[in-house]
Each structure stands twice: as structure tokens, then as C-alpha cells.
Amino acid sequence: MTELLVGDLYNFQDLLSPSEAAVVLRVREFLAAEVGPIANDHWARATFPSELIKRYAGLEIAGAVHSSLLNGWLALEMAHADASMATFYGVHSGLAMGSIRTCGSPSQQQRWLPSMASFDKIGAFALTEPTGGSDVAAGLRTTARRVGDEWILNGEKRWIGNGTFADLIVVWARDLADDRVKGFVVPGDAPGFTATKIENKIALRIVQNADIVLSDVRVPEDDRLQNANSFKDTAKVLRQTRSGVAWEAVGVMLAAFEIAQAYATTREQFGKPIGSFQLVQDLLVRMVGNLTASLGMCVRLAQLQDAGRYRDEHSALAKAYCTTRMREVVGWARELLAGNGIVLDYDIGRFVADAEALYSYEGTREINTLIVGRALTGESAFV
């Protein structure tokens, strides 16, 4: 593959097929041209570049059948350009479209997925609630009550990415009749549905997160995801997207390393580039070590997915490990840039802030640790 990434020290890109490498290169060039130059400005203003939505359709990657390695690498490339735009894409193509692919009937898939793949319809995923995060499986308070051929939804959701402008929102609610969690596709303009942008964020500022209120929102039975009958079905979606967050963490690490490495070769102190100093080289080596170990874990994870040997603990460990290593890498990169690391002009400040959100969403480190711990011991330590 041409244009190798300097941080891919072990050349993991060589595992992509020629056709996959061509897709990655096309996406990388698009992101460098369209996202990179505007990311800091939109991040500073907490605005979303809506004009880019239809241009993503031209990449022809949403909804396409890819290997897990290519899907992962695309998530890496998105985050390498900007973590907020990676989140936008992950919510739309991973969480929202993934819910319909995994839990929708064939007719539902045909009804919604093509328009979402072309970005004519944008999706969101409403699971997290104001009073619940890690305990959402047992603590989900949004309710669904069936009346004839309709369902009536009531409740609140929080931190819903794309929530302010999504056309279709996958809402997870507890059926009052059987106490099971079910999924519903709700139009963004449904009566009783309101979405309010969350202000004053210090991370993923480009992402338009929303507080959502559902007040007697009526949803036809035809819009209930027919294969979402308990939280176990919700978890199937999360297992897939959790691995994507691990890849995103690698993308953030890669960006941080590249920024630091380039700075070390151009910034001079004491009459020579700081890259000639032992302590600076030590920071760079620690960064690329974290990056390489995390990328290797993600590549193996993708191989297990494609081989049908993929389990919950695999994605949980990758998410916990890679986001923890990411936090270290962005901190070291900021340290290497010293004072210049805290201004947007040098990009790294944006990645430092955004890393905090990636570290927390799709399951905290502690929750993912308990998933892995349960697999290792056969004992559940969840409360």
C-alpha cells in the first residue's frame, strides 16, 4: 500500500488486500482534504459541518459488506482525522444502521438501510439515560406500552450523538408488559419527540449530542425492531461497535504520535531539533509502543470476528486496553509539545480533549474489565 503511515511500525497495513487498501487510501485522502482543514474551527465553535454529510456518501462505505479488518481500519482513519467525525460516522453506520441490520426484519432492513447508506437519512442511537449509564441493562427507565398496533414511548435519553439532526433514532425502551428491552425506530419529527443540544462540552465538541424527551410518542408495530426482544439483542449491537471504539482509539494515538514526531523534527532548542534529545526519543518510543500493541490487538480482534470466534470479552478487553493506552499517548504528545500543546493551532489539544470521551463511551474501563473478569473466572462481579 502506498502512503504508509509512519506510526505503523510493524506494517499492519500490509494485511489489507489491494482492493481494501485502495478503499482506505481513498478515505484517508478524503478526510485529509475535507475534514482536517476545518476540524479545529468547528471544534472551537461546537458546530457540525453539515455540508460534508452528502460527501460521505461518495465514499460508498456505509452499509457495504466489508471484512472486519477493513471496517476497523476505516474507523481508525476516521479518528486519525478527527474523533468527533469518527463518532458521527460510528453512530450512524455502526450503532443506528447496526441495530437495524442486527435486530430488524428483512423488510425493515430494506426499508431503512439503503437511504441510510446513501446518507439521505441520518441515524442516531438512544440508549443512555440521564440517570443511568453503566447500569442501563437493569436500570433502563424509558417505557413502551402497546396499544393495539401502536406503541407509546415515554422517557428521557442523554448523550445521544447526532440527536439534534437525525432523521431516524433507534430508541431502546422497556416493555411494561414483559419488562424486556425492545428497540423502536422513531422519526426525528415525531410528535412528542424533542431533542435539545447539550452545551458546554470539553470533548467531541463537533458531535451534536442531545438530551431527548419522549412524551407519549406513538410508534407503529411495524417500526419496532422485530428481532430486538431483550437487552441481549441490544448487547449484540454494542459488542460490534465496542470493537470499533478500540480502532478509533488507535486512530487517535496515530494522530497524536504523528503530530509529536513531526514537531520533534522541526522544533529546535539549544541549537538543535528536540528530536535529538534522549528524553524526547523516549517519549516517542513509548508512544509508538502503545500504538503498535493496540493496533496488533485490534488486528487480531478483526481476525477473530471474521473467523466467527469473536466473544464479548474480546471486544471488552480491546476497548479497555486501547483507550487506556490512548490516554497515555495523547498526554505524552501534549507533553512533548509543551505550551504549544494546549492551543488548537497544533491540533494535539483537540485530540487530548476528545480522548476523554472515547475513554468513557461504549462502556467504561471498569465495566469492560468486569466483562473480561467474568470470562476469566466464571464469576460475575457486577453489582
Radius of gyration from CA coordinates: 21 Å
* Count of individual beta strands: 9
- Secondary structural class: alpha+beta
Helix content: 40-55%
General shape? globular
Count of individual helical segments = 12
Average predicted confidence as pLDDT = 95
The major beta sheet can be summarized as: 7 strands, mixed
| Beta-strand share of residues | 5-15%
End-to-end Cα distance, whole Å, is: 48 Å
Residue stretches low in confidence (pLDDT < 50, at least 5 long) are none
Order of helices and strands: HHHHHHEHEEEEEEHEEHHHH
Describe the structure.
The chain has 383 residues and is an alpha+beta fold. Helix content is 52%, strand content 14%. The protein is built from 12 helices and 9 strands. It has helices spanning 18-34, 36-45, 53-57, 68-81, 83-103, 106-117, 136-139, 231-266, 278-306, 312-337, 348-360, 365-377; strands at 123-126, 143-147, 150-160, 168-175, 181-187, 193-197, 210-220, 268-269, 272-273. A hairpin with a 2-residue loop joins strand 2 (143-147) and strand 3 (150-160). The radius of gyration is 21 Å and the shape is globular. The termini are far apart. The model has no long low-confidence stretch (mean pLDDT 95).
Name the features.
single chain, 383 residues, alpha+beta, two-stranded antiparallel sheet, 9 strands
Give a brief rundown of this model.
The protein has 383 residues and is of the alpha+beta class. It is 52% helix and 14% strand. The chain starts with 17 loop residues before the first helix and ends in a 6-residue tail after the last helix.
